[in-house]
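stage 2 :: seqdesign
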């Protein structure tokens, strides 16, 4: 899909990988809507690239419906959805105090990363399948963001790994389901990237993390994630695939 002049929605677009994806797609000429639960962050990115900023809680159906309607009114039929919104968190199943992990901690991460992402997908997909097909029969593209933790989850990452593993498992059946409508689905599983969360760590910790990556021996750049997301949109043969973007990193147990 040529994104120039097309309507594109980026969730979690107010910071990190989402913000860089919004910048890259805007640079390529897409009509970008930046969705984020942090309205101020969304506005800052949108102002920078000439995009539309929309406050959106991906776990709330009405919030997503309103955001998609505003994006449609401003930019026309939705053609691409980049699901980058998500949260982290690490906690052992049984803590040092012998107490079990609160069930709410597990539910919260699953609800945002997996259920929230699917909530946006189902609503966006319904819009895409109603559009007129483009010249190659394609109607839309959906890209999700998992993590290498889906495959190499570390100690304390049970909830996070399960949420991202759910997105990995969702990719192929979703692609098969939407293939009849000309909508493609892929997922990116990034490794260690230099996002705002890692920026907060001491320099020596960042260097230690980078040293664990075979090559390139550095933390991933958000631009590299954005470039892959843009390539997935552009390459019509990419469908039903989960792509690790990690420099051959395999996470140790801890």
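stage 2 :: out
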């Amino acid at each position: 899909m040529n994104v120039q002049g097309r309507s594109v929605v980026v969730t979690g677009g107010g910071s990190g990988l989402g913000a860089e994806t919004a910048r890259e797609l805007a640079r390529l000429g897409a009509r970008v809507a930046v969705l984020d639960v942090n309205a101020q962050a969304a506005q800052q990115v949108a102002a920078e690239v000439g995009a539309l900023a929309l406050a959106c809680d991906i776990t709330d159906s009405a919030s997503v419906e309103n955001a998609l309607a505003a994006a449609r009114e401003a930019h026309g039929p939705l053609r691409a959805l980049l699901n980058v919104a998500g949260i982290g968190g690490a906690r052992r199943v049984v803590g040092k105090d012998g107490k079990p992990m609160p069930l709410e901690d597990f539910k919260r991460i699953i609800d945002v990363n997996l259920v929230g992402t699917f909530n946006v997908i189902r609503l966006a997909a319904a819009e895409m399948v109603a559009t007129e097909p483009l010249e190659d029969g394609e109607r839309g593209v959906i890209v999700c963001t998992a993590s290498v933790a889906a495959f190499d989850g570390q100690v304390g990452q049970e909830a996070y790994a399960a949420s991202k593993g759910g997105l990995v498992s969702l990719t192929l059946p979703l692609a098969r389901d939407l293939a009849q409508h000309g909508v493609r689905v892929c997922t990116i599983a990034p490794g260690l990237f230099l996002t705002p969360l890692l920026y907060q760590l001491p320099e020596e910790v960042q260097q230690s993390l980078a040293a664990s990556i075979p090559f390139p021996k550095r933390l991933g750049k958000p631009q590299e994630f954005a470039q892959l997301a843009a390539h997935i949109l552009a390459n019509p043969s990419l469908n039903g695939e989960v792509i690790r973007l990690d420099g051959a990193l395999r996470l140790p147990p801890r």
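stage 3 :: structure notes
- The beta strands are 7-11, 31-36, 52-55, 78-83, 140-145, 183-190, 241-245.
- The CA atoms of residues 93 and 101 lie 5 Å apart.
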